[in-house]
Specification:
heterodimer, A: mainly beta, four-stranded antiparallel β-sheet, B: mainly beta
Chain lengths: 119, 116
Amino acid sequence: DARVTQTPRHKVTEMGQEVTMRCQPILGHNTVFWYRQTMMQGLELLAYFRNRAPLDDSGMPKDRFSAEMPDATLATLKIQPSEPRDSAVYFCASGLVLGDRAGLGAEQYFGPGTRLTVT
Amino acid sequence: AQTVTQSQPEMSVQEAETVTLSCTYDTSESDYYLFWYKQPPSRQMILVIRQEAYKQQNATENRFSVNFQKAAKSFSLKISDSQLGDAAMYFCAYRGLYTGRRALTFGSGTRLQVQP
């Protein structure tokens, strides 16, 4: 049963600390997305990778957030330094896109999320 | 930019009855995908159903079906024979077909309660 995994599931940290969230996409998928869910903003895109290359990180605060894919089986999202307003649920999703048409593999499969609380 | 609007923050349905959740969207693209995702209290985002804009036939998955009106930019979800396990947040989402940005644009969600 292939699924996206995320660690940790819960993280409580103090303001100013570094936070690292990890995601393992479904084996064989070539796209990875990071979304953030808050009550105020809903679900919003932070970053998007295709074949490990970042294609869109326009939704991510560049001064404190960074996203990488060290290899095809691991995506990371880091916040340094963290702030209380970063408290949210962070989702990773993966999919398979073939060619230029997104039609093949339009679905994105979500991980269980990381609930981050910054005090 | 694409936007997705869900105008019903909360809905309630009796077990075994039918409920329809509304979604409208705005786009200048002619080819795209629409999705409904379910988010139960566990927070897991679960894909319920998808619709390709170029297909006139409405998608169906067991008790879940959509009413896709492309000209009206409307995409509603019908849940038949509602079950207690259907209680969750439901999100409508849009994804363009040819744009470089392949991420999903979500609506604000509708919380569905199922009464026994």
